[in-house]
Amino acid sequence: MDRKVVVPGDLLSEDAKRSGEGTYVKNGSVYSLLYGLANFRDKINVIPLAGKYVPGPGDNVIGVVKDITFSNWIVDINSPYDGLLHISEFPKRIESDEMSKHLRIGSSIMTRVADVDPTMKVELTLNDKKLGEIKAGQVIEISHTRVPRLIGKGGSMISMLKKEVNCNIFVGQNGRIWIHGGAEDMDLALKTITLIEREAHTNGLTDRIVDFLKAEKGARS
Amino acid sequence: MDETDISFFKDGLRLDGRRADQLRPVKIEVGVLARADGSCYIEMGGNKVIAAVYGPREVHPRHLQEATRAIVRYRYNMASFSVEERKRPGPDRRSHELSKVSREALEPVIMTSFFPRSVIDVFVEVLQADAGTRTAGINAAAVALADAGIPMKSMISSCAAGKVADTIVLDPMKEEDNFGQADLPIAMTPNGDITLLQMDGSLTPDEFHRAVEMAMNGARDIYELQRLALVKKYSQMVELPGREEVHVCD
């Protein structure tokens, strides 16, 4: 795979059709918008090395309730924009004055972005059996720019990880990750995820992670 | 100020040994502050400047926010110990002006429309001043913005030209700035779109064109150093695990 470090304004291609994420087109040529790594495939994508998470519809995220209003929970989703979880998006019907009985300020939730409007009002939902309040396990935070690598192509990395470390893992697009399992398994999962975050920009990472897990497990038994 | 008794040239070289079209030594470091989203430390000759970028983040106070785009705030500040005579701390007329023109130098390349209702804060602290702190500040701020992962159409580089003893010189230092005849700082994108142009003193139209041309060449050199600093930061990040070679864009 052809990859290159680029800075904003670098010329990437003369073919406007190859413009992908993190790029823009001017006078028929493709330029980089970001400081990061450019991937040259059919489309050219630039993956940033840093940056804030901007919510998009359908993203799974982990949030923390920071306020309760008449009919909404206001949720910090590790982004410049707060999430709004409306009372009607709670899995069961509840009364407005009982909201804090179900989700209190400080509660962590696995949730999904239902919709984002042009003024960046972020609507969240809990209407899926995968989603809900976090009551056990631990949540860690990595840079959201590393999340695609943690998930892998078509989920290859994350499904391998779940199987190998024998943990339940929920990856939020906002860089927060929930892990639940035995104490030792969680430690291993944590170590592995930190390793993936640190080496996210290297090639052949999945294979190396498999080796790493094998070695760690060998050391344990 | 023509009747200065200082001679600015000795054997065709300037007081610090530079040619007329030579920059002072530049050092750029990226990501020097752990708490900021992006940061940069720059030395341009005797100037020492640090820039920090925060955001995009929520706007406080609320009434400043814009429904369709991010706002950019830029604070240029000189440390009280940055100059020979202690500077009274806090914003003054000069730093207000510099904050404004520097912000306007950077804003055209920042994709503010990607982040409605948010703010991108840029803080520039001058630790040591030696003429040309606004250009150093803009250079540092541009690198810090890139480091923060903020989408931009291009980088911004900044450099000044001046006139001393009837000669156009690049990147004037303190003596030349204080006793010279003109100072002309510019900021621009690498392909030559100028986003800041100021001048004090006086130049003939011909001198003006030559000074702008010279400052633009200086800014192009600085652009190369800015991108080198960013590329270097990445390679250091990769080297830590100790693997694979990095392909560096030419």
How do the strands and helices of this protein lay out in sequence?
The complex is a heterodimer of chains A (221) and B (250).
Chain A: E1 2-6, E2 11-13, E3 23-26, E4 29-32, E5 36-40, E6 44-48, E7 60-68, E8 72-76, E9 83-86, H1 99-102, E10 108-116, E11 122-125, E12 132-133, E13 138-141, H2 147-151, H3 156-165, E14 168-171, E15 176-180, H4 183-198, H5 205-220
Parallel strand pairs in A: 9-11
Antiparallel strand pairs in A: 1-5, 2-4, 3-4, 5-6, 7-8, 7-10, 8-9, 10-11, 10-12, 13-15, 14-15
Helix pairs in contact in A: 4-5
Chain B: E1 9-10, E2 13-14, E3 26-30, E4 38-44, E5 47-58, E6 71-78, H1 93-106, E7 118-128, H2 133-147, E8 157-164, E9 167-170, H3 174-179, E10 182-188, E11 194-197, E12 200-201, H4 205-239
Parallel strand pairs in B: 6-7
Antiparallel strand pairs in B: 1-2, 3-4, 4-5, 5-7, 8-9, 8-10, 10-11, 10-12
Helix pairs in contact in B: 1-2, 2-4
Shape verdict of chain B: globular
- Named CATH topology of chain B: Ribosomal Protein S5, domain 2
Radius of gyration of chain A over alpha carbons? 20 Å
What would CATH call the architecture of chain B?
Answer: 2-Layer Sandwich
- Please provide the ordered H/E string of secondary-structure elements of chain B: EEEEEEHEHEEHEEEH
Approximate helicity band of chain A: 10-25%
Total helices of chain B: the number is: 4
Average pLDDT taken over every residue of chain B = 92
Write down the CATH class of the largest domain in chain A.
Answer: Alpha Beta
**Any idea of the CATH topology of the largest domain in chain A?**
Ribosomal Protein S8, Chain: A, domain 1
The CATH homologous superfamily name of chain B equals GHMP Kinase, N-terminal domain
Largest interface: A-B, 37 and 44 residues
Distance between the termini of chain B: 45 Å
- Helices and strands of chain B: which structural class? alpha+beta
CATH class descriptor of chain B: Alpha Beta
Averaged pLDDT of chain A: 93
